[in-house]
Amino acid sequence: MAEPIVRFGILGCADIARKLSRAITLAPNATLYAVASRSNEKATAFASANGFPPGSKIYGSYEALLDDPDVDAVYVPLPTSLHVHWAVLVAQKKKHLLLEKPVALNAAEFDKIIEACESNGVQLMDGTMWVHHPRTAKMAEFLSDECRFGRLQKVHTMFTFASDPDFLKNDIRVKPDLDALGSLGDAGWYCIRSILFTANFELPKTVIALRDPQLNEAGVILSCGASLYWEDGKVATFHCSFLGNLTMDITAIGTKGSLHVHDFVIPYQEKEASFFSVSEAGFNDLVTGWTKEPSKHIVTTELPQEALMVREFSRLVCDIKFKSLKPEKKWPTMSRKTQLIVDAVKTSIDKGFEPVHINEHASVSVLSGLDYLKKNLLGKST
Amino acid sequence: MAEPIVRFGILGCADIARKLSRAITLAPNATLYAVASRSNEKATAFASANGFPPGSKIYGSYEALLDDPDVDAVYVPLPTSLHVHWAVLVAQKKKHLLLEKPVALNAAEFDKIIEACESNGVQLMDGTMWVHHPRTAKMAEFLSDECRFGRLQKVHTMFTFASDPDFLKNDIRVKPDLDALGSLGDAGWYCIRSILFTANFELPKTVIALRDPQLNEAGVILSCGASLYWEDGKVATFHCSFLGNLTMDITAIGTKGSLHVHDFVIPYQEKEASFFSVSEAGFNDLVTGWTKEPSKHIVTTELPQEALMVREFSRLVCDIKFKSLKPEKKWPTMSRKTQLIVDAVKTSIDKGFEPVHINEHASVSVLSGLDYLKKNLLGKST
């Protein structure tokens, strides 16, 4: 039996949608099916430039795409301020939702999206690609190894890139009405996600923004950072910026091992990626050298990470569509935790770099709220 | 003409003195001449185990070594709390001073040492070895290159090592009466020095300790960190610890380039060391890979960095002794700036993680005070 195919619709012709179109083409269980833009002409040009198969649908409005009964899933690369409106509508139209990061302007907005997806039984996943690379699984293996890594003590992550004057003037990521979270919602999202990844998605108790974030004239964050604190003494720091040369690091230090990766968001090369690790490193007797050096681990992949993301998302969609399985909650849970920390950093900046306590209870109570909603809706549907 | 030789005396038989004894032996312009310990037996064993030439002097007290007119320079690896007493005495005995780090318990103490060295016309240098490695000069070249690195935006440094239970119980670095600064004075010293190095020794305006430093029962710091802020928006963070697997990183991000080094304090190997740099890195058109990867730069050295330190110190000593040159002020100036930041981090911790402003003026006024003293002493000696 041929693998079931998920038919994707894309809302808008954002630059990132070109990369995703290729990924959908590469994923064995997905196909490009429709694209919508307020300009029919733009959508037609996008489809022809990005390998849409003959017969693909071109829509002159987002609503029209959502009304197409043959669209299984929708990829939403719209500016963040439009997420809640369109994402909720996608879910209400019973389409599965692949949503660009940051998922929303804040967790409260994202909760509306989660609620809509849960109540409509559709899969929700955010567009964080690197977590789908097989390298990430290999790193997780190392980080969770009591013998090789031990307990996490400290993690530092950075994602910076030097944007050009055109970006700093015109990109949606520097516009308060489009991507109000600026660098924090864009580059910072990855830093925070990678910190949560190394901490096995345990939320910190406290978040404090570093001082002197750089803002543009409209008050949008161009660079910032924060420190995060856990109950057990773990500490994390990160720095994200539109103003520094391209850098994307995770450095995780455990009681017994350490890990370095320098291209975690987008690997240098598509087909292979590496990380460095060492366990129980020490000095020689005279302290003039190390007893061992970190080892380089190379992980190859046939498909690029964005295609692996589409494949995983489509697999879950097929499970729901053909096997009547429930949507996988781990993906929106990770998104929500990431968004919670984004919110906390933003709040700390807005409050003059005060510590912000991550309300485990609120987080839990929201999750319980969802469980409650689900039960209620389940009640309604039975 | 044979190179003039500096005769070293060593105060005490600390573990680190073994490494320094070898370095003195390797340096072409230095020789091991005397060692002192409160136990004559211990000093004799140390001298015989560490390559002291025949005829070397063994002293049963530090004072006796300082009274030996043939000792040119003294290496002081004593616990930090003893530095000010013995370092001042070394200077008063007109011996040049190679002083282990941290140089003192605080900058006010260190100022007494500087004052004693200045007024006695002796060279003062601290025992930070990595700055003498030729790799450091190569990194400085890159960091100061407007085209390849641009302006520094962010630097993160870490030095952690996982100490064993014996260290955590017995090492002088966890004893409040010996090395009260704990991990901050030991591993943190290197982090701070490397931050100042990347910032071209411009002092930050503000220092804030990260929360949740780990202390032992006696209140000595086992792990901590801080964020540092400059007038122009530069930000630095560091983390130092006795509790994490061996890691020693500098990551410096400029507007045009970035630099990584993973063994900055003690290179993996003695004869060669490397760092990684990349300039104007970007993404390919579809943002599926980098336009260029960081390059590895290997720097070889005939002499290990600690021998290069001894050689540089001895060169300055010979310049003073045989050419009547003045002591080189750049070394104590770097030490003092490092100590000022150590003090600021400690103060921030003690004050509940409040921001501490680095008083440029106080720093300047202290330097002016020294100039004043020097002029006065010059007045006296003419």
UniProtKB/TrEMBL annotation, chains A, B:
<dbReference type="InterPro" id="IPR055170">
    <property type="entry name" value="GFO_IDH_MocA-like_dom"/>
</dbReference>
<dbReference type="InterPro" id="IPR000683">
    <property type="entry name" value="Gfo/Idh/MocA-like_OxRdtase_N"/>
</dbReference>
<protein>
    <recommendedName>
        <fullName>Oxidoreductase</fullName>
    </recommendedName>
</protein>
<dbReference type="GO" id="GO:0000166">
    <property type="term" value="F:nucleotide binding"/>
</dbReference>
<dbReference type="InterPro" id="IPR036291">
    <property type="entry name" value="NAD(P)-bd_dom_sf"/>
</dbReference>
<feature type="domain" description="Gfo/Idh/MocA-like oxidoreductase N-terminal">
    <location>
        <begin position="6"/>
        <end position="125"/>
    </location>
</feature>
<comment type="similarity">
    <text>Belongs to the Gfo/Idh/MocA family.</text>
</comment>
<feature type="domain" description="GFO/IDH/MocA-like oxidoreductase">
    <location>
        <begin position="145"/>
        <end position="259"/>
    </location>
</feature>
<dbReference type="Pfam" id="PF22725">
    <property type="entry name" value="GFO_IDH_MocA_C3"/>
</dbReference>
<dbReference type="Pfam" id="PF01408">
    <property type="entry name" value="GFO_IDH_MocA"/>
</dbReference>
